[in-house]
Amino acid sequence: MIKVDISNVWGQLSLPDLLAIEGEIAAAHETLAKGTGEGNDFLGWLKLPVEKETPEMLRIRAAAEHIRQNSDVFVVVGIGGSYLGPRAAIELMQGCNHNIGKGKGNPQIFFAGNGLSTRGWNELMRLLEGKDFSLAVISKSGTTTEPAIAFRGLKWMLERKYGTDGAKKRIYAITDPCKGALRQMATEEGWETFVIPPDAGGRYSVLTAVGLLPMAVAGIDIRKVMAGAYEAKQTYDNLRSLENPVWLYTGIRNLLYRSGKCIEILESFEPGFKMMGGWWQQLFGESEGKDGKGIFPVTAEFTADLHSLGQMIQQGERNIFETMIRFDAPQQKMVIGSDAKNLDGLNYLSGKTLDFVDEKAFLGTLAAHVDGGVPVITMDMGELNDEKLGEMFYFFELCCGVSAYILGVNPFNQPGVEFYKRNMFQLLGKPGYEV
Ligand code: PA5
C-alpha cells in the first residue's frame, strides 16, 4: 500500500481539523462508488482494472509484438489524456533517454500530435528518416486538431513508403467504439482498432489501450501493470477510513486549500517521474479547476528544481504546499570514490552511495521547507516496478475523483478547454465557427 505521511503538515493543521472533514471524505468516496454524483456517466474507469487478462489486452500484446518486430520506431499520436499517460509510464519505467540505442525488436517511441510546433514536426521528420515505423493514432473524439494534423501527415508518409495496403498494416487507431471521425476512418480503411470506452474520459483512460499499447510496445508487462491496478482497486476502494491513503491525501489537500494553500507542487527525486507529474497535473487540473475553484497543480523535479524553484518555495508567498514522492532505492548502486588530491572536498563522502546523499537531500529539503512554513505531504511508493505503475495510476485517479467531490465540482468534465478551441477555429475559418 502507498504510504501517505502527513506529519509534516501539523504545523498548519491539526488532527481535529482532519477528523472534522472525515465525514466529507466518506461522503465523497460514497458518491463516487455509488455513482450518484455529477458526471456519473463517466465512471467507466472504475471498472478498468481487471483480475484476468481480457481479449482486448491479448490483442494489444499481439499488436505490440508485431510492432516491435517490424518497426524501428513507433509513433504515438495524441494529446492530453490521449498522450500523457503512456509517455509518463514509459519515462518512469525506462528513463527520459529510453530511446537511445533502440531499434527493431525494441523500437524507439516518439510522441506526436501533442502540439502545433513546426520545429517539433521537423525534428520528428529527421528522426524518422530511413526508419521503418508504425503508428497509433489516439483520440476519443476523433476530431482533435493537433493529433488530426499530425496523423494526416504521418499517414501520407506511411502510404508513400509502404503503399496503401502496407500502410494499413502499420496504423492502429484507438478511439470510441462507435462514434467520431477516427472510428469512421478506421472502419473505412480497415485499420486495427482498440477501444476507449465511452464512459471513461481521456484523463482517466491510461488503463485502456491508450496507455497499454504504447507500454507493451516499450516492453512493459501490461499484465503486471493491470495486476497492480486491480490490487489497488481492491485495497483503496474498500478501505473506508482515515487508514486509507486516498482519504488522508484528499482530506489534507482539501484542508490545506481551505487554509489558503492554493498551489500544490508534486515533486520527485527521480528525473523519470517528470512526465508522471505531467499526467497528474492534467488529471487534477482538468478535474478540479472549474467553478472558480481548484488547487493549481505544478510538478517539479528535485534536486534539479531546488536550484530554480527552491527559493520561491522556501521564502516566496506562503500559498504553496508540497507532495513529495519517494521510491525505494534501486538495487544497482553508485559508490562515490576517493581522490588523493580531494580538490573538490568530496572525500568526506567517499565510500557512500549516491542513494545515501539523495536521502539526506530529501530529509534536508523536507526540514527546510517545513521550517519555511510550507506543509509537506510525503508519499512512499515502495519499489518501482510494473505493478507499482498500475497501482499509482489507479490510486491517483481515485484520489482525484474523491478530492473533486469534496471540493464540490464535477471531476469528469472540462468545459473550459473548449474556449481556446472555439477562438482558434474561428480564426482558422473552420466551417460552422464563422463569427
Ligand atoms: O482528458 C481529456 O478528456 C482531454 O485531455 C482529452 O484527452 C484531450 O483533449 C484529447 O481528446 P481526444 O482524445 O478526444 O482527442
Molecular structure report:
With 435 residues, this protein is of the alpha/beta class. It folds into 2 domains: 3-36 and 225-407, Glucose-6-phosphate isomerase like protein, domain 1 (Rossmann fold), CATH 3.40.50; 46-220, Rossmann fold (3-Layer(aba) Sandwich). The chain contains 14 helices and 10 strands. It has a 5-stranded mixed β-sheet, with helices on both faces. A 5-stranded parallel β-sheet has the order 3-2-4-5-6, with helices on both faces. α2 (55-70) packs parallel to α7 (209-217) and α3 packs parallel to α7 (209-217). The longest helix is centred in the middle third of the chain and has 24 residues, at 145-168. The radius of gyration is 23 Å and the shape is globular. It binds 5-phosphoarabinonic acid. Residues 79-82, 139-141, 144, 147, 201-203, 286, 414 line the site of 5-phosphoarabinonic acid.
